[in-house]
Amino acid sequence: MDNYRPSPGTPIEELDTPCLLIDLDALDHNYAQVARTYRDTSCKMRQHVKNIKSPMLAHMQIRAGGTNGGVCAAKVAEAEVMVEGGIHDVFIPNQIVSIDKIDRLCALAKQAKITVAVDSPQNVRDLSERARAYDVTLGVVIEVDTSMGRAGTRNADQAVELAKLASTSPGIAFKGVMSHQTLPGKPDRETRFIEGRKYIQACLDVKDAIEAAGIPVEVVSSGETFSYDVAPTIPGVTEVEGGTYALMSHGFDYMTDLQVAVKVLGTVISTPRPGIAIGDVGSRALASPGGVLPQLDDMPGARVEALHEEQIVLRVEASSTLELGDKFLLVSGQQDIMVNRWDQYIAVRNGRVEAVWDIPARGCHN
Amino acid sequence: MICAKALAKSRGLRFAGFTTYEGAVPEEDPEASAQGSRRAVQRLLDTREMAEKAGLEVHTTSAGGTHNYKEVGDMAGVTEVIAGSYALMDGRYRSFQPRLRPAARVLAVVTSRPEAGVAILDTGQKAIGSDGGLPSVDGGLNARVESLSAEHGSLQLLDESAEGLQPGDKVWLVPWDIGTCANLYDYAHAARNGRLEVIWDIGARGLYR
Questions:
Q1: Hey, which of B26, B54, B81, B154 has its CA 20 to 30 A from A138?
Q2: To the nearest whole angstrom, how far is the Cα of A334 from the nearest Cα of chain B?
Q3: A residues 200-259 near B, CB within 8 Å?
Q4: Which CATH superfamily is domain B2-83 in?
């Protein structure tokens, strides 16, 4: 574990590298953008902390506004960190099936409002049985697959059956439905709205089917970063699970209202031949799932040529130079995978360190 | 050579020798890979000879890796091999070194069986690392990792027995790159004969500076 804590006021150029930076102006911008978008809507943001791994950053969005006061967490361990960090309402939009993990959820429900997603009857029965043993109530939401082909019910009948079981099982409170979707490539605004509405409508159709069976639906959690401005325009959606929007990545650069707030600072450690510079940071620290390369930030005349585990290869045009010891900034293609590999954020503003924040949910895989 | 001569003259520095890592050799055919390794390391040995002819004393010639430790270690003049993955092994090096056994695996849990032929695992890119390739399924289960997203793994189930997987069942995964995977965990569970023996901290995890 690293514990790098440069003093406030330290200029960026003097930082030891590689290190993970948060651009506070960009973060404030993104949080204000979400607060504005959800200010007058009944639909609210429930920030997904799998992207930020820090209760501190979650509280910043809650204070900025636009949220329902809660967060999403991907794992029980992540939820535990959030509750310890003072968050009192956590939704896990994943299936928690192992009995030892369900017991941890129940213990957490003694301290905070806990909701979890289900897609199988056995899971509903296990949650009900353990919640009764712990004398707590777990909120339950049915995950609806809207074409990801991952977890989730595959048709409305399946969801209605599950809702009937959940709404009549002791120890759990049936809350509603959720869905999650990704969009490939770099869609324009019109495509985002068309596709986003289509997927969210698929989730709302399941809600209607459950209500038609006489079971009230309180929660419809649908929408993510690419549809954060689509979901609140659709009546019936109550909350959005946005995660990437806070810190952003170059994979989402089509979301032009949002700014990249997390970057890695590296240093040139070798210039073996003209036009090539080697940096001190590689895939281990940057992450490149699927081979997606990071991009250089604000460095015209240079680009990322290749990424190795511990080094990066930069291609430099003749018109520009990179010398030994020069610093550069990189933006990841998938921000949450990268943040999960770091122990501290160095928060900077106007070229200087303002604060150092731990990333306590890093490595919370279980 | 210019570098070595400058080094030899620098106060506070001692010229020790040469190192290379020939990571770019062909990886498909083992014999072509071995030949490529020998060619690459021969260049290093030629450099060593030039340095010695110029009167420099060369203590160290360091080369090789897990995929070619034997071929490179057998070359006269190579003084050390800098291999790492061989200890715990992984999917990437398995085909090169079938005699070495995977010693580190990730234990995943099935969290959803949404349709026939598909199982969803609680282990995704974040918990196993997939910068270079997908993990493989171990432990006798006839299934393969179809894809990984940040938090989930998707398994394709390949026979009737695998179809019997239920939510809560455990699945062994061998990471494609053990270095990336180990760097994601704070501790490792050391097991023997099916039981936990000890838990070790991974003290250098996340140390990039």
A1: B154
A2: 9
A3: none
A4: Alanine racemase (3.20.20.10)
